[in-house]
Amino acid sequence: MGSLFLKLFLWLWLTGIIIAGAFVVSWHHWAPASSLPSQAELEQVAEEISNLYAEEGGWGAVHGYLRSLSRDQKLRFVLLGQDELATRGMQRRMLRGLSQQDREILLDTAEDRGRLNGMLYKRVVVDFAGAHDFYLIALHPVEGLGGLPVWLRAVIALAVTGGLAGGLAAYLSRPLRRLRRASQALASGDLHARVPVVERGGDEIAALGRDFNAMAERLESLVEAQNRLLRDISHELRSPLSRLQVALELARRETSGDSNALAKMENDIERMDQLIGQLLTLARLESGAGASNMESVDLHELIGQVCEDAQFEAQASGCNVLKEDGPHLQITGDRHLLRSALENVLRNALRYTPAGGVINVAWQRDQDGIWVSVIDSGPGVSEERLNDLFEPFVRLSAARERDSGSCGLGLAIVRRAVQAHGGSVAAHNRPQGGLEVRFWLPLKGPAS
């Protein structure tokens, strides 16, 4: 049974067989006259008791014959009429379950067959040599499901068919639900997500699960190779960069006077050092070794320190950093990563805020976490490129990138650092101008 089509076919076929069988069984139990004699048989009994009455000239032989037909059987034959003498000699056993009201109903009803108080009945008129208004009535108790109320039979039928349908739906949808959960985990960054499937055989869903696992393994290997390349390059560049810094310091000591070439070289070395540091941080976050040193962090104090440091850089470019007086909060997180995220957001805002501009930093608490907002006075970003703002090495627009010295890693580190804490980050253009970067962090740290 390796094909999904074959499974569907067999399940539906089995369901059809069960439904058909249930219909046959229910019809057998619910058919109103299935346990009663046929009309011809009942008329034959009526003719026989009519002849007995004519030959014997009394009711005794008639009652005895009806008792013999009803002995040790669920099927009973009773004789009812307007003349009480005709039924007075009837044994109690033959009239059990028939009240006086039931007898009157059987005599007065226009239906010659039907159901009455849990009994199926069928009647014919008996001719006793001119004595009219006599009925021979065959009675049989309702058995099986037919004895249940209609609403209860409907509930049973719904429960049985619903159980079959539920089993079928659960059986067919279980592997799809597993595949969906694995896809969601992979999309959220869990590169180890796999679908439990058999290595060979199975139906189309099992084959799809194997294809998904192969894709996930390929993605994991590619991402791991990329991160390993970033780490290796960064470490390899660190050593010659350190030697350049030492050589630059020695050259400065040996050179008399002011040297613009040495100053430019020092600036380039510092930028390369920052780039390598960012590459190492990004590679560490991409590898999943993110928020590892969790501790209680005073967010008010941390934001104050970062804003104070950023103010020195702002003064050099002729702009200003304004920090609102937000709430004093303790947050569980990695202090180094949180500081790196705040510094990169502020450094990005400083890079694109013109002289005389203002950068506003604000934060507020919601039910489960805290929102941090940084607003610059720069040119903003085109709407279609806002989602690319947090991707590494992405160059957006000439207005924001010209002479900025940016390599496109700062906001990528921000997103990875915030996600490592179980938070989220987004950016949008403000109607009055400027870009707002806003991220949310849970107060209790990432969920385990």
TrEMBL record:
Record EC number: 2.7.13.3
GO molecular function, one term: phosphorelay sensor kinase activity
Presence of keyword Zinc: no
Domain annotation Histidine kinase: ranges: 232-445
The entry's keywords: Kinase, Membrane, Phosphoprotein, Transferase, Transmembrane, Transmembrane helix, Two-component regulatory system
Keyword tRNA processing part of the UniProt annotation: no
Transmembrane segments: 9-30, 150-172
Gene3D superfamilies assigned to the protein according to its UniProt record, in alphabetical order: 1.10.287.130, HAMP domain in histidine kinase, Histidine kinase-like ATPase, C-terminal domain
Topology relative to the membrane: Multi-pass membrane protein
Subcellular location, record wording: Membrane
Pfam families xrefs: HAMP, HATPase_c, HisKA
SMART domains: HAMP, HATPase_c, HisKA
Known catalytic reactions: ATP + protein L-histidine = ADP + protein N-phospho-L-histidine
Domain HAMP stretches: 170-224
Main location: membrane
Entry GO terms, CC: plasma membrane
Protein name: histidine kinase
